[in-house]
Amino acid sequence: MARLANYFVVVGYDLDNRVEGEGQGRILQRFPEKDWEDSPFPQGIELFCQPSGWQLVPERQAASFFVAVLTDINSERHYCACFTFWEGLDSPQLKKVDAGDADEADEEPAVVQHSKLFAPKSLVVVSRLDYTEAFRNCLGLIYTVHVDGLSTPLETVIGNLLTCVIPVAGGSQIDESPVCSLDKVPQSPACDWLLACLQRTITLGAGDRQVIQTPINDALPVSGSSVAQLFRQLGIVNVLYLFCAALTEHKILFLSSSYQRLTDACRGLLAIMFPLKYSFTYVPILPGKLLEVLSTPTPFIIGVNSFFRSETQELLDVIIADLDGGTVTIPECVHISLLPEPLLQQTQTALSMVLDPELEFSDQAFPPQSMNPSALKIQDKEIRAVFLWLFARLFQGYRWCLHIIRIHPEPVIRFHKAAFLGQRSLTEDDFLMKVLDGMAFAGFVSERGPPYRATDLFDDLVANQVERIRQEEACPHKVMNHVKELAEQLFKNENPYPAVAMHKVQRPSETSQSTDQSRTPFPVLDDVAVQLFIDHAVAKLKSSPPVVKAELKSMVPSGPPLGDIVDRNGNVMANSARRLEVVRNCITYIFDNKMLEAKKLMPAVLRALKGRTARVCLTQELNQHVLQNRAVLDDQQFDYIVRMMNCTLQDCSHMDEHGIAATLLPLVTAFCRKLGAGITQFAYSCVQEHMVWTTMQFWEAMFYSDVQNHIKALYMETDDGNQQSNSQDQQDGSGNRREISALELAAEQNRLWPTLSKEMQTERVQKEESTVFSQAIHYANRMSYLLLPLDTSKNRLLRSSGLGDVESVSNSYVTNSIAGSMAESYDTESGFEDAESSDVANSVVRFINRFVDKVCNESGVTNEHLKALHTMIPDIVQMHIETLDAVHRESKRLPPIQKPKLLRPTLLPGEELVMDGMRVHLIPDGRDEATGQMGGPPLLPAEGAIFLTTYRLIFKGTPSDALVGEQIVTRSFPIASLTKEKRISVTLTMDQFVQEGLQLRSCTFQLMKIAFDEEVASDLAESFRKHLHKLRFPQHVQGTFAFTVGQTGKLVLEPKTKDKNQSLKTLSKNLVKNAKRTISRQYVGRKKEVPATWENRSNFQSELDEDEISVSEEVDQSALTLSSTIRSSDRQTMSNVVERACCRDYQRLGLGTLSNSLTRSKNEPFRISTANRMYTVCRSYPGLLIIPQNIPDSTIHRICRCYRQNRFPVVCWRHSRTKAVLLRSAGLHAKGVVSFFKSPNAPTAVPSQADSTSLEQEKYLQAIISSMPSYSESTGRNTLSGFTSTHMNTSESSDKLRQPKIGDLMKQVLGNKEDVPGTFSRGALGQKAKVISLSQPKVSGKARNSPRGKWGSIRGSGRLSAYNPDIGTRLAGKESPQPNGGPNDPLFLRQQKAYLYIIGDKAQLKGGKQDSFQQWEVIPIEVCDVRQVKNSFKKLMKACVPSSQTTEPNMSFLRLLEDSEWMTLLHRVLQVSVLVVELLDTGSSVMVSLEDGWDVTTQVVSLVQLLSDPYYRTFDGFRLLVEKEWLSFGHRFSHRGAQTLGSQSSGFTPVFLQFLDCVHQIHLQFPMEFEFSQYYLKFLAYHYMSNRFRTFLLDSDYDRIELGVLYEEKSDRRNPQVCKSVWDYIDRLNKKAPVFYNYMYSPEDEEVLRPYTFISNLKVWDFYLEETLSDGPPYDWELRSRQESLAEETAEKADTGAPKSQRHIVWPCYDNLSKVMPDAITKLLQDLQNLEAELGQTSEKWKDTWDKIKTTQRTETKLESKPSFSSSLLMSSNLSHQRRSQGVCLQDSRVGSSIKLGLDCEASATSTPVAGRPSTSTLYSQFQSTESENRSFEGILYKRGALLKPWKPRWFVLDKTKHELRYYDSRQDKDCKGVIELSDVESVTVGTPTMGAPKNVEEKAFFDLKTSKRMYNLCAQESSNAQLWMDSIQSSLSDA
């Protein structure tokens, strides 16, 4: 029984005490005045009566009612029902207020102005029971009695209220007699009142009556309709968010303007959390004065009036639910974990079916008639039923995870969280993890854990209806039925007697509410009278017998075990039976000592152990082999068992949710092996490296589980036999016998407990306590086993974090169980970093002490026992350490495990080991070939060793897979090519975690992922990294392998060694000194001149004059001194210079010769200048340069300043036929650009030095132009008519056929879009092309002055730029007026063209102004800078050699290749090169002037020469090209290759590799034009990056002279093995074997190559993709020959008895295909040599043999009458004949940046009908076309199209053989556009010009061809031509 009301309080406005202008409330009266003992009076009630503050108001307000909830210090809730009404203040009271407010009048004028004010007064009932409606009625009655002046005294009503006693929950109805004083109550209602009390009816003696329904079970919350209200206010999703937030302990704040709604919302939220109880701050109504409570750090549920909304805005971690607005605001920093799916979805569905049943039928044509939602009270219970159903699903099976660790005197129960999550497969679920860790769940376990107690609805649901819930969960309607059943039970609990409705409560009359004046204030009550009531009731209560409510205790049912649930869901059965069989077989083999069988199965077993069932199976199998807690094994068995245990534990999380570690724990202390006399090593010493052992929760769960088993055993024994048999033979529903569970046993014991005698009770308590104590000792031992490492001398424990910090744990596992001495290899630094001491023993003792304290306190161990444990633990640890020392000593003596023997790599001559082999595992990367996934054997992972030599990094080993174990895997790359090294941690499938690993990426397209074996100490691995870094980035280039090769002991060359070429050294020192001085002065001079704009240039000049002149004088002086030095000191250097590649090539090209006296012959247009012989003009240029004949050396000194890096234009190649020259230079300086474009005749104020420089620059360019024969022949006219190509067709001037091609090319290179509307010509690629008609010889004046036509804006990156449109018009072959105003020549004959084109960087040439008199033009293009190349190359490497496998579609090879843009860059470079080739071929000279002149310039210039000059496509020529353009002209190999420490930051930029790739692309398209093979290019590419040779080191000839290496590249006489130059090496190899030779080489004289440059025509170079795992990269030939000889030796030693198979399986990524399967010719040549060797003849060189065969072949071919394809396959050029004549195919660059080099496709109709190329289809034509035989007559005719179509030029062919007239788009076109059958021709007549006919054509040139189908209007270029055509057609007709 409980009092309905504990206290009645009257609270009023405090007129005397106002704080800071704010009103206060004060308690006027309270009853009783003394506190009850069982519930003290709550403090601060007056704050809660007016939560928004006490204020006086000018108008009376309506009475209000709400219930506030206060929580006391014991977490008990007090319900304060506040009834507030407003009373007027009389005048004396008002005066008091006025006086108090006089000084505050300014602030609160409202108080002073009103004559009448009203103050609030509150009647408060304080109760421990929550009966809102009853309180509302009672307080309303008291107010009514006061207002209406009823006869009943207020004291009586209040006295009755305070003495009313009601049952807490539905108990017996007999004992509930009313404890009320009847003497003061009128007699007539007394009997009624008595009756009402029996019916839970109360009356307060004022003629009222009301029924209070007490719930049947008070464990279930009473919610009224608050839950339904909450859902209506906020909606389903919002409430679910709040629900999850409350369960996961977030802060929740409700806002509303209604206090009662705040209370209801909070009550509703708590109700749906049942069976969990909220245990944090709970304040449904928070007074404004206490708002600072909101910043508390703990979770809460609080309600606040919306009035204070603004003050809640800055709360950053509070979820705010606005009940009035229906919103829930979740701050950004708060993450609410939601229910796991599918629960969330199912809950939402169920809730929407309850709240909105119409939704389901809203789309039906005939919806059911009555689909209204239930009444609010019923709906409320239905919603709560949904949440009950939800919790039953969340917590199903929780009782199976309860550990009972004490039964007497009180049950002590712990929840095994890990097992629960593991069995539910919800370990990853954030929500459930947080709920189980929360306070609410801890309360749930302590409340519902005990096995013998009263049960409620939830216990029944979670135990008995799990099966039903599981079957119905997928069907919402069945779920709803279940929910309705539960709702009915909940409703019945709250309203047990719905029939009783005897409510009778008076309300105030309308008149009393309306009249203000008549009211008297609430009177002061007579406290004596009220107290009498209370005293009387207390006395009566004492005299009556106590009410004993018999609690129905019973055993709590557990429900079905969790395992069954999950099994039926099928989540567990992930492992197939086959895998489990493998595990079982392997264990059987191990224990049967069949080690070979076990070894074969081992990899499969370790893979299977990834699955949970296999791990469980392993523990079960191992258990069977343990006898009396011991299993002694031999060494190898022990090792296998330990490996399997490690693998099993490796995937266990620190929680051990599946109990794998728990089941292994007894096993690791059982399996052991004998090491020596009396020394045994147990398995635990080898499985310590797992995080689970350092997790306190794991040990606690293990301990409690064991204690439970022991206590269960204790009671099983004590029960006598028959009891035991009864209990054990309990049958479950299925009829299976099952063992009694610990909880059932405990429930039985709890039931019997009161019946036992005191002695029995004490005995049982002591037995349990000692059981726990003995287990604690046992666990102290177990923990020391697993926490103390084998070698305790090292200050290292399991991991660097302190024990029990489960977060950070290393991944290295000890597995070398036989060696046992692995502790040496651990990093000694990592241990317990503990402030007090890092001693292992101490930290273990502390950890065990913490554990013991916790578990013993929880399980009630006595203090004496606890003290004993604390003294015992250090001894246990110490004893164990002593045992381990002996084991450690013995284990070191064991022979180590047999690991694969380390294979030694073969080294090059001069290559030495820096670090000997370290055992590592080579892990597979993202390439599939080697792992066996694409078929073939799994070569990786492999086990072997990594070797670091002075030249390479080499891995050599054998595959881990036993099936491929006999193969040898080698992967290596030169150290110099290492681009990135990063640490990784690697899991090996075979064994376990490996300590650490490295990922090393090389720019030779190789990747090594290695994991160090456990025997490699981490300091050794670190030292390996340091050595690697030192070798990769030496201090100086002399530290690279090319320089140190053969020098033993020293990695870096000592600088003080005596130099053998002393004179050269002196020269270079002298040279450097002077050059530095000069250059620095030049820079000083240049710094000052910063001319800003064009106009004011002259203003600067006066001050600059002297400076510039002085500089130039100095330069001359220094040049003189140096030249005199050179003459006197070292003549030989000069002859060396002459020998260099440049000079040899210049002489071949006829660009000048060097006679002995260095004089020059005057008739040559060019001469070799020695101005730079001391490298003073330009340090990065060669010593000898080609410049125009008439330019003196002094001019060069001045010109060079205009260019970056002083790299002024020099000639590097001359076209043998057109005599056009190719020049190269760097880009111009900013100053140079302006002066360069300035008109020479522009007026200048003062003739200045700067002008003179730019004049000289122009003179220089003019001199180059004058040197061209075409210029002198054209008699000053700026045309190209002077030179016509002779080898073109003769029907027209070749010029007019060739020109348009260049215009098109140019447009594509510039990325121009034509704006002139054109038609679609049906060209080979059908792109939009422009038609320009032929021009007449005589042009009207109007036409002559017409604008030049729109040449489009040269668009680059979408920007318009202001270049002179004339460039394009000239190039595109459009009409443009002559500068001298003369008439235009016919377009065919006089094509205006520049003599010199300058290809410049677009970014630099902005704002230039072209002058029409100059004979050069600038083509601005956008170049790719080196940063682009660098980034692109990085991406290319990642695409070709990915570091890990991925299935993402956007990470596929082709996608990554596209993203790298490497092919786009190749396309750009090739495109510009093809343009330059075309320009040179048509007779214009070209100057390539890009960036600094040493990257893109070099690429373009080299490619142009390669395409134009067949000599460079031979061995000698290519070498010469590279030496001249790349080495002499100073490409920065060292800098771009990041070869030294200094250039490390700049990164690897493979400009030369890009060039080689371009050559490879050309080689693919013209395989018969190159003497060298593709392998030659790969060889150069590899050694360009390898630093094996000195060829590609250093940045210029100057650097090479300085180091004294320029002229010593001829290999050392002393050490002939070591080649310093890659060229010498190639020569030697080439003499021995035809590796570099291209057998298809069959060049044509003077052939110019024009490759296709579309991206679609480019192929990925296989150099980037191929690898040879058998013996590493195939580019170091000494290694190959050594390996072959070794292989032969081993083959000879091998047993010869067995028959040898002729078959050899070739694996693409393993074997070197060219070696294993050589091509036919190589094979024949080899066989020939072998045969000659066998016959004892001296074998002749392969080249001689090959040449002989070739000559005989040629003669045979000539003798044969008809060449057959088979005989001439090798030599004839049929294969590529079509390809050669094709020229360039172009594509439209609609996209793109200014060079965006995406070529326009076939813009053939630019100015002539003839231009065009054969389509790509002809590439497939293997034979020469025979069409020429059938061409009786051919030429250009204009043909009029069909109706309304224009005239078009077509190439007509009259074919008498086939009797047809065909026409094509152009002459070269192979695709016929149309055929006119001559048999259909009726007549050929002279025609007349029609509309749109070509202009400038005579009338007689028109003729018509009438066929039976249509009339063809044709037109020739002249009348004679037309006549010829008509005659030919007529004759054909007559022939027919």
List keywords for this structure.
1936 residues; 60 helices; single chain; seven-stranded antiparallel sheet; alpha+beta; elongated
Describe this structure in words.
- It is a single chain.
- With 1936 residues, the protein is of the alpha+beta class.
- The protein is 40% helix and 12% strand.
- The strands form 11 sheets. A 7-stranded antiparallel beta sheet has the order 25-24-23-22-28-27-26, with helices on one face. It has a 7-stranded antiparallel beta sheet with strand order 39-38-37-36-42-41-40, with helices on one face. Strands 3-2-6-5-4 form a 5-stranded antiparallel beta sheet.
- A hairpin with a 6-residue loop joins strand 36 and strand 37.
- Helix 21 (577-591) runs parallel beside helix 23, helix 30 packs antiparallel against helix 31 and helix 42 runs antiparallel to helix 47 (1462-1481).
- The longest helix is centred in the middle third of the chain and has 33 residues, at 1097-1129.
- About 20% of the residues have low confidence.
Radius of gyration: 51 Å
Strand order of the largest sheet: 25-24-23-22-28-27-26
Shape label: elongated
Binned, the helix content reads 25-40%
Number of strands: 42
Main sheet record: 7 strands, antiparallel
What structural class do you assign from the helix and strand content?
alpha+beta
Number of helices: 60
> What is the residue-averaged pLDDT?
74
Straight-line N-to-C gap: 131 Å
Write the layout of secondary structure elements.
Elements: E1 2-3, E2 7-19, E3 22-31, H1 45-49, E4 64-71, E5 77-88, H2 91-101, H3 109-113, E6 118-127, H4 132-148, H5 154-163, E7 165-166, H6 187-198, E8 201-202, E9 210-211, H7 226-234, H8 236-247, E10 251-256, H9 259-272, E11 281-283, E12 300-305, E13 318-322, E14 327-329, H10 343-355, H11 376-394, E15 402-406, E16 412-415, H12 417-424, H13 430-437, H14 439-448, E17 452-453, H15 457-464, H16 466-472, H17 476-494, H18 510-514, H19 527-543, E18 554-555, H20 562-569, H21 577-591, H22 595-608, H23 612-624, E19 631-633, H24 635-650, H25 660-668, E20 671-676, E21 679-682, H26 696-718, H27 721-728, H28 742-752, H29 758-787, H30 840-858, H31 863-893, E22 913-923, E23 942-949, E24 952-959, E25 969-974, E26 978-984, E27 997-1002, E28 1006-1012, H32 1018-1032, H33 1041-1044, H34 1062-1088, H35 1097-1129, H36 1131-1139, H37 1141-1149, E29 1166-1169, E30 1185-1188, H38 1193-1199, E31 1210-1214, E32 1221-1225, H39 1230-1237, H40 1249-1266, H41 1269-1273, H42 1294-1310, H43 1341-1344, H44 1365-1372, E33 1396-1401, E34 1416-1421, H45 1426-1440, H46 1453-1460, ...
Parallel strand pairs: 10-12, 10-13, 11-12, 19-20, 32-35, 33-34, 33-35
Antiparallel strand pairs: 1-7, 2-3, 2-6, 4-5, 5-6, 8-9, 13-14, 15-16, 17-18, 20-21, 22-23, 22-28, 23-24, 24-25, 26-27, 27-28, 29-30, 31-32, 36-37, 36-42, 37-38, 38-39, 40-41, 41-42
Helix pairs in contact: 4-5, 5-19, 7-8, 7-9, 7-11, 10-11, 11-17, 21-22, 21-23, 22-24, 23-25, 26-29, 29-30, 29-31, 30-31, 34-35, 34-53, 42-44, 42-47, 45-46, 47-48, 47-51, 48-49, 48-51, 51-52
